[in-house]
Design a protein that fits this description.
177 residues; alpha+beta; Ribosomal Protein L9, domain 1; Ribosomal Protein L9, domain 2; 2 domains; three-stranded mixed sheet; elongated
Length: 177
């Protein structure tokens, strides 16, 4: 047994504005209608569908425009990650996941859900990688991700440690005397 309702807002997994959907009576009575997400599908409410379809078309056009604009910005963006790697090897210690990319994008000022970043497996190689980001149903941005190894440490650090040890020895002799 089901009840027909007209959706007033987009609900993931159910439909968008102006869609007439069949749902269980309890779901309609206890959730959709009290929260004003839907209205019962009667002859009077079916006439309101045209206005809802107009709102839906405006919203979808705006979302598509925003997604295209964001895709252009992300195409120019280059994310750089630094990971330790073995000598003479392109394999790194650790990996770059979609969550790491989402965090780096957030630092750059773009809020994108990790689920929209299409990374089937973590990045574990040095070099440049192209990662697709699904912004809308038809729009996929290509994000450039570069994985580098850290700059080699200079040899000055061991020399300072040796100087520090030499300075301590005379101090200990001074205590004995």
């Amino acid at each position: 047994m089901s009840v027909e309702v007209i959706l007033k807002t987009k609900i993931e997994g159910l439909g968008s504005e102006a869609d007439i959907v069949s749902v269980k009576p309890g779901y309609a009575r206890n959730f959709l209608i009290p929260k004003d997400f839907a209205a019962p599908a009667t002859n009077a409410t079916k006439r309101q569908v045209e206005e809802l379809r107009r709102k839906r078309a405006e919203r979808e056009a705006k979302e598509l425009n925003d997604a295209q604009e964001l895709a252009g910005k992300l195409g120019k963006l280059k994310l750089v990650f630094t990971l330790e790697s073995g000598e003479g090897s392109d394999k790194v210690f650790g990996s770059i996941t979609s969550q790491d990319i989402a965090n780096k994008l957030k630092e750059a000022g773009y809020t994108i859900e990790r689920k929209k970043i299409d990374l089937p497996k973590a990045i574990k190689d040095l070099g440049e990688h192209e990662v697709p980001v699904k912004l809308a149903s038809e729009i996929v941005a290509k994000l450039n991700v570069t994985v580098n190894h850290p700059a080699p440490k200079e040899e000055a650090a061991p020399a300072e440690a040796a100087d520090g040890k030499a300075a301590k020895k005379p101090a200990s002799k001074a205590k004995k005397a």
